[in-house]
Amino acid sequence: MQVLRLLFTRLATTAITLAGVAVIVFFVIRVVPGNPIAMMLPPGATEDDIARLSALYGLDKPLLTQFGIWVAGVIQGDFGTSITTRQPVLDLVLGRLPATLELSIMALIMAMILGGAAALTGTRFRGGRTEGAIDVANGMALSVPDFLWGLVLILLFGVLMPVFHISGRVTPSLELPFTTNFYLFESLIRLRFDLWADIVAHMFMPALALAIPLAAIIGQLLKQSLKETVNLDYVTLARTKGYGETRVILREALRNAALPTLTLVGVQFTFLIGGTVIIERLFSYEGLGNMAIDAVINRDLPLIQGIVILFAVIFTGVNLIVDLLYTVLNPRLRHG
Amino acid sequence: MAEAKVLDGRSLVRRRAGLRLWLSAGWLTLLCIVALLAPWISPKDPLAQDLFLGRLPPFWVQGAEPGYWLGTDSLGRDVLSRIIHGARVALTVALVAGAITCVIGATLGLLAGFLRGWVDMVISRLIDIWMAFPPVLFSILLIAVLGPGLISIIIAIVVIDWTRFARVVRAEAMAQGAMDYVASARVAGRGRLGTMVREILPNVLPTIVVLLTLEMGIAVIVEAILSFVNLSISTDDPTWGGMIAEGRTSVHQAWWVLVFPLVTLFLTVLAFSQLGEGLKDRFDPVLR
Q: pLDDT-derived band of residue A190, with 50, 70 and 90 as boundaries?
């Protein structure tokens, strides 16, 4: 019951948030100077040509009417037509979404592994030099944003020791047998490990750049809650049974310490997805964010709207799922 | 024995935090001085191009030209001079955008957290909407609307980042508002606004100062990101982000064009955030 009521109120606020995003993005980008239609026509086009094409895209109507047409379309799943490529916005956006999703999820997994390892090592050797070193590394990782880590990685693994690719998603000369745009996933399914390795070599640096700050947050929080847990009675009991410290931390403490960290990871994951915009640009990775920046530069209004709405849907969706999961997993809230 | 050990540990933590604080403050002071004196201390004109002196390496590498300490970029512009002049843009953005964001965000957060009711509802909904935008894309959009330039960058940072202050200050103000001293101030006859400004604000101030130093670091990064996607100031003016963007394209031919501005930016961002962390340890035991 409680979960249902929460679901309902959260769905309502999510709808308000999305409506707000739609209104803001629509009216903000219409203040952008520069006529997108004039930009796409060859030089020497007459006023008449511009007017005709504007009418085709509905850009000659009053703003409120344009907004009404757009919203009505969006509700029916029609996000309009991109001005630069003349393809439906929805197709373009969904075509790029898998690239961004794969990058974000790979980064999330890397962050959990790195952060988890840091927290466990720090807890195992708590109070010593190792913990101090981990704290310093965490502090550094947390202070510097993904954009700068990306540049540092380019220098380290792209120039100094060129082991990974610094741009693109896959080597362009490779023959791709894929039917979906989930290259990483599909290459695994098709057992094409040669392609998989190439894709991973392209994704490694952008994913790591996104992962480093999140790994630091996970490391700090998990270590903190692990250190609280290792002194609880049931953990001490396990220790008196003769289990080693490492086993006690892994088998007993981790289980209870993980929940608070997991809920935080959800919120931080949306920040990570937001970070893909500039990281994709930095690594010329053909995802949603890179397309978004091009769309702004080209004044492709329908495409900008579509991408921003999609990002907003992802962000609010992740937050909604995390909130619901937290309620389901935490009995105190469920019956509260 | 045990007590002595605890005390020792604490003084060690404090000493390390103190060192961190002084190093960060030192680097930022140096940067301020360099930025102020830029026209007098930079060895070359940061805009002067000389295609015959393109991609000169830094002074210790074979083929370097005397006077160009950190080498030149592909147009023959002096890297060191451009970093020095870039500090002006970076620090202006950090100080001005940081301060304005802080005032607006903290005020809204304070109002929402202390007054509650419909004010809180409106501000919280706005925060929700803002959080649903990818911030980098939002800033690029705003610069496209406002046109490139220093003022546009500052406006974009304020418009996007006020939520950072508003969210934290709102939560703090709510927590403070529930405490006894606030109730007694009200009983003693202080008005609502008086209580907010005289009682709540001083208690939230340490948090605000810490957030402000962090925001300054973020502002420097945002400026660099916008220069990187070529939307910041005009392309000629030296900015760290612009230099990094240029260095990124020629990293295989001339690594120094990327490395030096990157190291400067890295240290500056680190200094701002360590300053914030250090201050947090210094004057707010609760935040620790």
A: confident
Distance from CA of A39 to the nearest CA of B (A): 15
How far apart, in whole angstroms, are the C-alpha atoms of residue A138 and residue A328? 31
Q: Output the pLDDT for position B235.
A: 60
Q: Output the average pLDDT for chain A.
A: 86
- Chain A residues whose beta carbon lies within 8 Å of the beta carbon of residue B288: none
A180 and A58, same structural domain?
Answer: no
Q: In chain B, which among 117-156 make CB contacts under 8 A with chain A?
A: 125-126, 128-129, 131-137, 140-142, 144-145, 147
Number of domains in chain A: 2
DSSP code for A42 = P
Kindly list the residues from chain B whose CB atom is less than 8 angstroms away from the CB atom of residue A154: 248, 251, 258
A278, B136: Cβ pair inside 8 Å?
yes
Domains and CATH numbers, chain B: 38-283 (1.10.3720.10)
Nearest CA to CA, how far is A229 from chain B (Å)?
A: 19
Mean pLDDT throughout A152-176? 87
Residue B9 pLDDT? 46
User: Above 80 in pLDDT, residue A38?
Assistant: no
The interface predicted TM-score of the complex, written ipTM, equals 0.87
Q: DSSP of A236-256, one letter per residue?
A: HHHHHTT--HHHIIIIIIHHH
Range of the domain at A32: 2-75
pLDDT of residue A333: 57
Chain A residues whose CB is inside 8 A of the B265 CB are: 148
- Whether residues A142 and A247 share a domain: the answer is yes
In this structure, the answer to whether residues A31 and A145 fall within a common structural domain is no
Whether residue A101 is found in the same domain as residue A154: yes
